[in-house]
Amino acid sequence: MRINADFTRRIVVRRGDAQWTPSPQKGVERLMLDRIGGEVARATSFVRFAPETDFPGHTHGGGEEVYVIDGAFEDDNGLHAAGAYIRDPIGSSHAPFSAQGCTLFVKLWQFDKDDHDHVEIDTASGEWRKAPEGFAIQPLHHFAGVTTFLVRLDQGATLNRAIHPGGEEMVVLAGACADAEGDYPAGTWIRDPGGRVQRLFSAGGCTLFVKTGHLAAAAAAARMADEAASGAG
């Protein structure tokens, strides 16, 4: 399966306009954003647990990165409420369960092989670093040139910036924002190959999950996989 597998293209998915599909586990649905592979895949998805739903215990062969958008789930490491940012490295395992239901942003099989740390941050009580122009940043993770952080834009703020030349993903967690190419309500996922200037504006304020510096490597890996498949054929 290949979904939005050309990492040189800009992609926008608005959660309200896209289709959720059942996973193999009853009560768990996925909105697939990008994917290379079958049930075990390099994947980026929104994942939705119905109340009183569990997921079988499993090992993360390529690592798992999670942001809890709403609700809460629990696993071997405890309870993870809305705003939790979690990194489960390669070889880790857990058995998630959600009593109340939850919506997650999940990235699978995208860890650097040398990144071994388990990370959990409660961003709801995390420290925001004020910056000029009406915005603030909350750092989450940095490794090998790839950086993950939250951005909060004040009401009426405009952020003029250059998108990272190594590419960027952004999820609108709350509020809404816009640029010259469109409007992005809460639940929007944007993947941009980068290297361009953007003027991002938020009339009412917004909170964003942002990951930068990783798409150039993803594009190179996808090309190598295509070349290998072509050679095998």
Q: Could you say what the CATH topology of the largest domain is called?
A: Jelly Rolls
State the total count of DSSP E strands. Answer: 23
Give the biggest sheet: 9 strands, antiparallel
User: How much strand content do the residues show?
Assistant: over 45%
Structural class: mainly beta
Helix % is under 10%
Order of helices and strands: EEEEEEEEEEEEEEEEEEEEEEEH
- The residue ranges in which pLDDT falls below 50 over 5 or more consecutive positions are none
Number of helices: 1
Radius of gyration: 17 Å
Mean residue pLDDT: 94
Query: What is the CATH architecture annotation of the largest domain?
Result: Sandwich
What is the CATH C-level name of the largest domain? Mainly Beta
Distance between the termini: 17 Å
CATH superfamily of the largest domain: Jelly Rolls
Could you please describe the fold and organization of this structure?
The structure is a single chain. With 233 residues, the chain is mainly β. The protein folds into 2 domains: 2-121, Sandwich (Jelly Rolls); 126-217, Sandwich (Jelly Rolls), CATH 2.60.120. Helices cover 8% and strands 55% of the residues. It contains 1 helix and 23 strands. The chain has one helix at 215-232, and strands at 2-3, 11-14, 21-22, 28-37, 41-49, 53-54, 58-59, 64-75, 78-81, 84-88, 93-94, 97-98, 102-108, 119-122, 129-131, 135-143, 146-153, 157-162, 168-179, 182-185, 188-192, 197-202, 206-212. Strands 1, 3, 4, 5, 8, 9, 10, 13 and 14 form a 9-stranded antiparallel beta sheet that branches. Strands 2, 15, 16, 17, 19, 20, 21 and 23 form an 8-stranded antiparallel beta sheet that branches. A hairpin with a 5-residue loop joins strand 3 (21-22) and strand 4 (28-37). The longest helix has 18 residues, at 215-232. The mean pLDDT is 94. This is Cupin. Residues 9-111, 119-216 form the ChrR-like cupin domain. InterPro entries: ChrR-like_cupin_dom (IPR025979), RmlC-like_jellyroll (IPR014710), RmlC_Cupin_sf (IPR011051).
